[in-house]
Amino acid sequence: MPDRDRDGQVASITTQEVPPVRRHRSSEVIVAEQKTVTTVEETEGEDGSPVKTTHTRPGTKVMYKPTEHQGYQAKTVAGSAVGMLLGQGWFEFCPDCNSEHLNKDGVASTDPNLCSAREPLAVRVCPVCQKRIYDNVRSAEGEQDTGDVNVIADDSYAKSTGATRTRASLDLHIWVRHPRQAQQMNLAPLPVALRDMVEEVKT
Questions:
Q1: Where are the domains of the chain?
Q2: DSSP state at residue 172
Q3: What is the pLDDT of residues 125-136, one digit of tens each?
Q4: Is 77 helix (H, G, I), strand (E, B) or coil?
Q5: pTM of the complete model
Q6: DSSP symbol at 178
């Protein structure tokens, strides 16, 4: 056998990681997994004897809701509504990153910044209850370009930033959920229309 010519080059192999494909499970299987939560409340009867009351409610599950312009949003829903929401196009995992959004403890979370397929969102934290307020408003640039010459182009409504949007959302949250603390923080009074909305939420 004749000798092969050797040019000194070394063969190389390139490997590429392929993300696992998440298989869709049947609605029946997902619904069957939902559990109820039972709690026991201990009180005293009129004669002072202990009284135990058992409460049963549906458990919860994080599901992913399709939106028109913002991809999929993680929402916590009642286990009893899972079947109906699956029928409306919701998912049990995020179609953007093909997985569940799990926090550092491995628990399903609605935190949008846990999605590996998206850029992280700016966020503020409520100083009263620690609720996280995300800047989940995406730009709609170009979506209103319908070719209609009668449409007035006004960029003044597009000058908001992540900082101003989250500040407005956080101020509204504090006024709605923590009105006493809002006064103590000397937050700017809400516009009249928003005050009416706050009263509706309280009632």
A1: 26-110, 121-139+159-203
A2: H
A3: 999 999 999 997
A4: strand
A5: 0.65
A6: -
